[in-house]
Design goal:
Alpha/beta knot; globular; alpha/beta; single chain; 7 helices; seven-stranded parallel β-sheet
Length: about 210
Amino acid sequence: MPKMTEERLTRLRTVACQRQTNFTVVLENVHDPHNISAVLRSCEAVGIAEVFVLYTEPKLQEDYLTLGKKSSAGARKWLNVNYYTQMDNCFAAVRARYDHIYATHMAQDASSLYDLNLTESVALLFGNEHDGVSEAALRYTDSNFLIPQMGMVQSLNISVACAVSVFEGLRQRMTKDFYGANNPATESAQAAILQDYIQRHEGKASGKKTRRKD
């Protein structure tokens, strides 16, 4: 069992108090585990507390989801990963906890990422590497957004697109001191996160393996 030093406890407390419990990412049928691992690292870095992984394609579905290698082990340990195989169940869970769902999708009515208000209660949906967000998943969303690009190639790797998007969320949230006194999470929610992190530090909850929820 790792020894809990005062320095370590202070670090856990600081991180717990900065977690953004009203900001999340949903991944639909992302095939490459390296992309998922990169997304987890970005989400953890900006203080996101949980992500949702949806696998509706039978070839991707397993009872347990094991994500990433050593490069993402640290991020994976401190994030809650909600794994679903049924679209209705996944988006019902997202909608129950987040007010808005925005999808990265090329559409005429798509907004710029930089016009979104990412200080609201928001879930950002990203599709897979080949087809993007499916038409079925789009029915659960409120609107679409794009990342402005000025080059000839108008596409980004899914993990890069996610990183750009969540760090824009971090920028907006920092301007409102959401990582400080104005954190949207209640004191009791922050205390619960801290207790969970203490248990993870002690090895009682690794967060490395996630059982499907449906």
